[in-house]
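lol forgot to send this yesterday, sorry. struct tokens for the thing we talked abt
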């Protein structure tokens, strides 16, 4: 069976268009399928619309989250509850065309790989700012993770059930799948497609969320900022030591001059560096703190029908009655 996992947040306007284009593609496949929509705490009519669609789309499943957990956490929820032998993750904005799923599935079955990435070969519909920042992001992440990451491959991908289980065994909480999956070394192929414009509504990844994703990605896979801080600290120590020796020589020879401005600049520069690297250390300490809390990444609003704990409770209640 094929599972299509769709994390969504406030996609009331895009959802009817998405279903209209996705369902014919899946109905035409030579295998059964399910569509698992993860409602990431939407505040518009997304949840109500999904419940209406349940009555006339039997392959649809809805997994509502109690609160907005973020795109990667909603994707985690979908992967945890998917039942298929192959799992596709796709967004509901139709920037990633559903018809590519057929090609992904064909490539996976023909080559026996664990992952098929959807690669955005044509991003002309994106703004120049988005294309430039995306190029910088993927370049930096390849250096940070130390592995080959398909360029311009986002969260539109197909994975085997065994690969999803391997990812689910990780205890890491701040998951960034577009880096984590390549890092795990699965055999993969790519399928290129043209990225389309959002069909309706506003982007759910504004600049501040993009910056947060980049920061989380970088701190998840490298300690380079800490090493940079260490070496810059060593350099600063050497320069300050040299300056101190020069100042002592000038004082001993009586060649001292008023230098309050330069002194204040040096003190300010050193103080700024200290605060900067304290902030970097704080980023890593915050990640340690989050990992130690071990809180669930998401909270479902309903028990899934295949929940073993719930089934066990029901059986005990039935025997009691």
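and heres what i got for the seq, position by position
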């Amino acid at each position: 069976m094929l599972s299509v996992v769709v994390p969504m947040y406030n996609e009331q306007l895009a959802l009817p268009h998405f279903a209209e284009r996705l369902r014919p593609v899946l109905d035409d496949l030579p295998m059964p399928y399910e569509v698992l929509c993860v409602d990431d705490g939407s505040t518009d009519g997304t949840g109500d619309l999904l419940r209406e669609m349940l009555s006339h789309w039997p392959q649809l499943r809805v997994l509502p989250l109690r609160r907005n957990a973020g795109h990667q956490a909603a994707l985690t929820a979908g992967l945890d509850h998917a039942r298929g032998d192959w799992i596709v993750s796709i967004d509901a904005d139709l920037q990633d065309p559903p018809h590519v799923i057929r090609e992904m599935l064909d490539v996976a079955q023909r080559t026996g790989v664990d992952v098929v990435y959807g690669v955005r070969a044509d991003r002309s519909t994106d703004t120049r700012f988005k294309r430039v920042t995306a190029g910088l992001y993927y370049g930096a992440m390849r250096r940070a993770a130390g592995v080959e990451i398909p360029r311009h491959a986002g969260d539109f991908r197909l994975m085997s059930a065994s690969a999803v289980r391997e990812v689910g065994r990780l205890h890491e909480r701040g998951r960034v799948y577009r880096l984590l999956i390549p890092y795990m070394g699965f055999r993969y192929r790519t399928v290129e497609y043209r990225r389309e414009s959002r069909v309706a509504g506003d982007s759910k990844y504004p600049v501040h969320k993009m910056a947060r994703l980049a920061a989380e990605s970088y701190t998840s896979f490298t300690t380079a900022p800490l090493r940079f801080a260490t070496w810059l600290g060593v350099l600063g120590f050497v320069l300050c030591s040299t300056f101190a020796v020069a100042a002592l020589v000038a004082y001993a020879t009586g060649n001292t001059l008023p230098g309050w401005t330069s002194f204040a600049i040096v003190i300010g520069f050193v103080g700024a560096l200290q605060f900067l690297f304290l902030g970097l250390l704080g980023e890593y300490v915050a990640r340690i703190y989050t990992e130690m809390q071990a809180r669930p990444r998401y909270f479902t609003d309903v028990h899934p029908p295949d929940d073993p704990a719930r089934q066990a409770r029901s059986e005990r209640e039935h025997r009691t009655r």
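The longest strand covers residues 115-122. anyway ping me if u want another try
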